[in-house]
Amino acid sequence: MNIRRKKIYFERLAGSPDPVVMDIRRGVHFSDADPMGIMWHGRYPLLFEEASEALGSRCGLCYGEYREAGLYAPILSLHIDYFQPLYLAEEFTVRASLIWNEGARLNTEFQVLKQDGSIATSGYTIQLFTDHLTGQPCMVSPAMLERCRNRWKAGEFH
User: Fold this and answer.
1) Using one digit for the tens of pLDDT, what is the confidence trace for 53-69?
2) CB neighbour class for 85 (10 Å; exposed up to 12, middle 13-18, buried from 19)
3) How many Cα atoms are found within 13 Å in the side-chain-facing hemisphere of 146?
4) CA dihedral in degrees (123, 11, 108, 3; nearest 10)?
5) What does the radius of gyration of the chain's CA atoms come to, in whole angstroms?
6) Using CA of residue 44, residue 49, residue 52, residue 54, what is the dihedral sign?
7) What's the pTM?
8) Helix (H) or strand (E) run with residue 46 in it
9) CA distance readout (Å), 4 to 17, 92, 99, 105, 120
10) Beta strand ranges found along the chain (DSSP E)
């Protein structure tokens, strides 16, 4: 048994809504694989980004909206745990889960699931909202994040 296997990276706040979850399906393409036919480790951040982009579109937190609001949301932290390889032409699911928090940031957990449901890879990102002109971190949650949270509390994402 692998004791490193994590399903939850961020503490769930008491009384907070359940995570918003988005799954995308994908296969291991030739350009994703190393010479052994295994998904190259450097592709996993791209998978996380694809799932994160789909999740953001669902929640009203997509890149076009960031630009309109004068915001950036750079990655502050990226963490990946590798458990089992994915192989050339193998189909899999990437699950992105936005975790409730009270700050001006996005905490997202990821799981890459093999067809049998086992975890190939898991990880997380932390994105911090910043002003696009100054680069300074937002000290309070931006309006677009508050709109998302209001919809989230109202149950629109479940």
Assistant:
1) 999 999 999 989 999 99
2) middle
3) 6
4) 10
5) 16
6) negative
7) 0.93
8) helix 44-59
9) 27, 21, 20, 26, 12
10) 20-27, 71-72, 75-82, 91-99, 105-114, 119-128, 130-131
Note the pLDDT tens digit of each residue in 17-46: 999 999 999 999 999 999 999 999 999 999
115-133 burial, b if ≥16 CB within 10 A, otherwise e? eeeebbbbbbbbbbbbeee
Question: Roughly how many angstroms between the first and final C-alpha of the chain, as a whole number?
Answer: 33
pLDDT at 7 exceeding the cut of 90: no
CA–CA separation, 90 and 62 (whole Å): 29
- Counting Cβ atoms within 10 Å, is residue 53 exposed (0-12), middle (13-18) or buried (19+)? middle
Q: Quick check: helix, strand or coil at residue 98?
A: strand
Rounded CA-CA distance 123/78 in Å is 7
All domains of the chain in start order, with CATH? 20-153 (3.10.129.10)
**Closest of 70, 68, 52 to residue 135, by C-alpha:** 70
Distance CA 8, CA 110 (A): 9
Residue 111 tokens read as 């799981």
